[in-house]
């Protein structure tokens, strides 16, 4: 792991890639709710270009991970489980105070 601080754009790209993976897994599993959630998440990160915006959008995205049975995290197939876990990790990175704007 590098000690070099990540940039806002690199983490935003990572988050968008994870959202695309959630969308693909939702399509594979015919999971309409997660597909709509992926669309909502895309909208959250549209136009985000600075650390503050990324932190705010990431915080909103992380609200999906609250709750128990039937929550966003409660998945029934491996592809979705991996995608949801990857998105969670990327959103947590988006909350970092150590991101550089460029």
TrEMBL record:
The species this protein was found in: Pseudarthrobacter oxydans (Arthrobacter oxydans)
Name of this protein: Uncharacterized protein
